[in-house]
């Protein structure tokens, strides 16, 4: 039971960490595919599991200033995306508490 703390997702389509295949989120939890990360295409997720969060820091993005935290795979420590703590623009508030995972860093686990 070495991975006892890892959450095992059981939907028809699960996204995992590309490096170690640890489950990170469900296909059904994607809010938007219209995002870009450091490695290209990125998705906004409602819920992500098996990650650790860094300290928050302010970042200027194309959509304005946000407070974000990098998120890392809990198993292999690879950076997989970031979480939005706070958005200053009213139009961007829906992202607060949500997660970005970079498509390039994900694999599909079926
Ligand atoms: Zn991993």
TrEMBL record:
Keywords: Metal-binding, Zinc. The keyword Metal-binding applies. GO terms for molecular function: metal ion binding. It comes from the Eukaryota. The keyword Metal-binding applies. It holds the Pfam family Yippee-Mis18. InterPro entries: Yippee, Yippee/Mis18/Cereblon, Yippee_fam. Residues 13-110 form the Yippee domain. Belongs to the yippee family. This is Protein yippee-like. The lineage of its organism: Eukaryota, Fungi, Dikarya, Ascomycota, Pezizomycotina.
